[in-house]
Amino acid sequence: MIQVILPAHLRTLARVGGEVAVDIEGQATQRSVLDALEARYPMLRGTIRDHVTQERRPFLRFFACQEDLSHELPDAPLPDAVASGAEPFLIVGAIAGG
């Protein structure tokens, strides 16, 4: 089980209160986690990744083990601590301003 922490607006949309857990078949990657998350919570499709390109939406970032994974390849393995469930995969809403 991989623990995923969603930003507040996506928790509201998915109707969950906190962390969610998803089962991954095979290697834990950003793509496999997001595929499992969208399969379990179909209302999140298109909110984290673009429908067509499957690229991360602007103003969302991915973190795990105190590292920014936002620019990693979608099929790069996640850290072992995330794959084992010891650390969560965080989807964080970025803030812009000036």
Describe it for me?
By secondary structure, the chain is of the alpha+beta class. The protein has one domain: Beta-grasp domain (Ubiquitin-like (UB roll), Roll). Helix content is 22%, strand content 19%. The protein has a 5-stranded mixed β-sheet with strand order 2-1-5-3-4, covered by helices on one side. A hairpin with a 2-residue loop joins strand 3 and strand 4. It starts with a strand and ends in a 5-residue tail after the last strand. The mean pLDDT is 94.
Number of domains: 1
Structural class call reads: alpha+beta
The ordered string of helix (H) and strand (E) elements is EHEHEEHE
The number of helical runs is 3
Cross-sheet strand order for the largest sheet: 2-1-5-3-4
Low-pLDDT segments, ≥5 res: none
Mean pLDDT: 94
Helix content: 10-25%
What would you give as the CATH superfamily? Beta-grasp domain
CATH architecture term: Roll
Quaternary structure annotation: single chain
The gross shape turns out to be globular
Largest sheet: 5 strands, mixed
CATH fold-type name: Ubiquitin-like (UB roll)
**Strand segment count:** 5
Cα end-to-end separation: 39 Å
Tell me the Rg in angstroms. Answer: 13 Å
CATH class annotation: Alpha Beta
Share in β-strands: 15-25%
